[in-house]
Amino acid sequence: MSITLTQDVLQKFIFENAAVRGEFIDISATWREVLSRHSYPAPVKKLLGQMVGAAALLSANLKFNGSIIMQIHGDGPVQLLVVECDADLRLRATAKLAEDALIADDATLPALLNVHGKGRFIITLDPADKVPGQQPYQGIVPLDGDDVATVIENYMLRSEQLDTKLWLAADDNVSRGLLLQKLPDHGGKAGVEPLTPEEALETWNRAVILGSTLKEQELLETTVDVLMQRLFWEETIRVFDPLSPSFHCTCTREKVGNMLKMLGREEVDSVLAEQGHVGVNCDFCGQHYDYDKVDCAQLFASDEPVAALIPASDVKH
C-alpha cells in the first residue's frame, strides 16, 4: 500500500572516500498538489510524476540561484511535458495533450511522445539574477530512451559528460526516486589516499549494482529512510541534512499582463470584441486572470512595466 506523507524530503548522501554521490527523494505531497489541479490519463501521470522527482533531484546539485526547466516536446498524443524547479526546490508541472489524443492505459513513452522519432528532450538553466545580455543555458537532444530515467541519463552523459543513474516511480499518489552520480575528480580527505581510477570505477559499479536491485513497486511502497538502509547498509555513507521540496507556482497578474502585451494589441482587441473580456488560466496551477476593456487599455497605454499599472492578484495558490 502506498504511504501518504504531508511533507516531502530530499536526502543527499555520499559514499565516504569514494567518488560517488547520491540522493533519495520522496516528493509525493508536491506531486499530489500538481494532480489536484489537473486530470491526466494514467500513463501521462506516470511520466510527469517521474519528471517531477527527476527535476528536484537534478536541481539539488545546481550551483547557482535560478531554475531548472525540464521539457519533453512530443510528436504523438502528448505534445509537452514540463517541470520547473527553482533553487529552493519549489516545483510546478504541467502536460499538454493533443486535442484528439487517444491514450491506452499501457502506453509507453515512445508511443506517447516519440511516435515519428521527432521528440526532443530539453533542459534549460535560467539564472534568477541575470547580468545584462545573459541568456539562459539550454541543452536540446533527441528523445533517446524508452523511459524518463534513461532519457535523462543519456542527456547527462552526452551534454554534461557525467555518469548518472536514476530510478524513478510515480502513480496517482506517490512520486519517489534515487539518483547516483560518479564524480569526475576525488582527491580524498587529508591523510587519506585518493582512489585510483580502477578503485573509483569499482566503487561506482558497486553502487549502480546496489541501486539496480531497486524495483518500481518497492520505490512506490517504501519510505526514503527504509530504502537507504535496505540498499546501502554495508556501505560507509555520509548523510546530509534533508531538504524539503514543495509546490509553488510563479504565475502573477503582472506576468500574464506582459504576455498579453507580447501578443499585441490587435490580438487582444480581437478577443475583447468577441468575448468582452480576456480570460487567461495558468497552465500550471489553474489560477484564472481576467482583463476587461479598461484593464487592456491600461496595458497598452504606457511602456511602463505592467506591475506599475495593474495590482497583483490577491488570490493565493
Give the structure's gist in a few sentences.
The protein contains ten helices and 13 strands.
Assembly status = single chain
Termini separation comes to 30 Å
Major beta sheet, strand line-up: 7-6-3-4-5-11
Taking the sheet with the most strands, its summary is: 6 strands, mixed
- Mean pLDDT, all residues: 87
Describe, in plain words, how this protein is organized in 3D.
Strand 8 (164-170) and strand 9 (175-182) form a beta hairpin. A six-stranded mixed sheet has the order 7-6-3-4-5-11, covered by helices on one side. The chain has a five-stranded antiparallel sheet with strand order 8-9-2-1-10, sandwiched between helices. The chain contains ten helices and 13 strands. It has 317 residues and is α+β, with helices and mostly antiparallel strands. The longest helix is centred in the N-terminal third of the chain and has 18 residues, at 42-59. The two termini are 30 Å apart. It is 33% helix and 26% strand. The chain is elongated, with a radius of gyration of 22 Å.
Reconstruct the topology from this structure:
Blueprint: E1 9-15, E2 20-26, H1 28-35, H2 42-59, E3 66-73, E4 78-86, E5 90-97, H3 109-113, E6 120-127, E7 137-142, H4 148-159, E8 164-170, E9 175-182, H5 197-211, H6 216-221, H7 224-232, E10 237-239, E11 246-247, H8 253-263, H9 265-275, E12 278-281, E13 288-291, H10 293-301
Parallel strand pairs: 5-11
Antiparallel strand pairs: 1-2, 1-10, 2-9, 3-4, 3-6, 4-5, 6-7, 8-9, 12-13
